[in-house]
Amino acid sequence: MIYLFYFVVGFTGTICCDRSGIRTDVCIMKGDVRTNSASSSIFLYKNTNGFINYVSSMVEEKELQHEKIRPYTRKWETSVMDTIDELDLVVKKENETANHHCDVVHDVPAVFFSTGGYTGNVYHEFNDGILPLYITSQHLKKKVVFVILEYHNWWIMKYGDILSRLSDYPPIDFSGDKRTHCFPEAIVGLRIHDELTVDPSLMRGNKNAIDFRNVLDQAYWPRIRGLIQDEEREAREKLSLSPSSDPSFKNVKEVQGDQSKKPKLVILSRNGSRAITNENSLVKMAEDIGFQVQVVRPDRTSELAKIYRALNSSDVMVGVHGAAMTHFLFMKPGSVFIQVIPLGTDWAAETYYGEPARKLGLKYIGYTILPRESSLYDQYDKNDPVLRDPSSVNEKGWQYTKTIYLDGQNVRLNLRRFQKRLVRAYDYSINRISQNCHHQSQ
Description:
This protein is an alpha/beta fold. The chain has helices at residues 2-9, 51-56, 78-81, 122-137, 153-166, 209-241, 252-260, 279-289, 304-312, 346-359, 385-388, 390-394, 398-406, 415-441; strands at 15-18, 26-36, 41-46, 63-69, 87-93, 104-105, 110-114, 145-149, 172-173, 181-188, 264-268, 292-296, 316-320, 336-341, 363-368.
């Protein structure tokens, strides 16, 4: 009878939930939608005339439909989902609305989602939050209000530039804002496709990962232009203060001109585990090959616009497998991404970063280290499975992988071996720069 109910009355006035995915649930409510943060509920009020009265008599008197949902994109992971606030989605009779008023009336849909869970890790912030938010809302063309569960001010500050490219309206703190917000439609939960990507076959207008990256471009360039203007002003001030007769002073534009001719390589540096312990030697080798080298050390407080600027202008990025590799999203399609893969991380490196990088149009090079390049080589017997057969260790469970290979391992690159990858990346970049210059001159 419930299926007949949906069929007869149509979509408006009902809750339609898609629970078929392993990663996420998404429910849609259309009609008179009202929030009630005190009860962690979203109500949908509807008319109960005619056929509906017959149907409502078969269910609870005051509720025509009741769904529960935790709006976070790691549905299969019970341990983290248990920490996500649950929402009650309830369809009620319209004649019960006499005592319910709207404090704020919106004429655009709402998207409800949580910034709880693994928020605080940049991979999860993009994979479980920002990318699904784009996937779910981009077809609304910024005419949407984001309603956030487990609202964090720091998250809003960090991702505000992106949010402003996805919505024309300020986000709402669901639990902190006690007012009743009324919407014509609500999407509760976020859609997600795969690791750090957008599947065009599932998107309206066949949007893809490059379209998402274009949103990042729009989000960060106003801030980047401000940074460039500040640097140019500082350079002019230094120039005006420097005696023109000083032979040790070199014109700033001349220096910039020299550097611009070289392919730019960015090294994403790590502190703590999975650090490259001979990083200084790596920098020198890359410079000797012909790269202009910039070392970037992102952390939780790093301004994303500055990281975006560094990687957007780069030809090659080098980094050791870890959450910071998420920043490959900031690179221009056609650039080179070299991921250093420590022992025991082959599958994760390929699944979470290698394959998504290719989908973005990057030239991906995976560099799997040898046991001698791992700090574990000095801690274990040479025949220990930790060195000889990492897959057998990983099969014991996530905690073994995390403790041994993620938290307990650093990398000392075999520079002669790694040099081959850098030379290949350099030659590729030089050819690409030459081709771009040729096209621009035509």
